[in-house]
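User: Here's a chain of 123 residues. Predict its fold as tokens.
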Amino acid sequence: MKLIVCMSVIAAVFLASCNDKRDKKEVSGQATSQAEEVMPDIDGVSELQTPPEEAERNEIAEGDLPDEVINMLENDSLLSALQLKKVHKIQKGGDIYYDLAFITDEEETMMVSVSEEGEVLEY
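Assistant: Prediction complete.
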């Protein structure tokens, strides 16, 4: 008799625990679908996937560089020894900077990003 009671209690506990997990899965599935519905989808792009702002890139002549950038190039020991190949003016948001392409002694191209104030941002 004790064996039957113990087996019944174990079976009841097992069934109750299985049922509880199924309910949690259903609840979490509902929460996930509700969260997905909250995310607006405007023209195929959600608010969290806003495309980055495009930078405007224009090639300019060396003479069109600001005086601060020209002074920096003349005073920099490395850059003053290299031949300037191309200059691009980059406008992104309210920021303006310049991508400068130099030819090295090994005939390789070296890119340098310079701010409008003549500060080297990136080699």
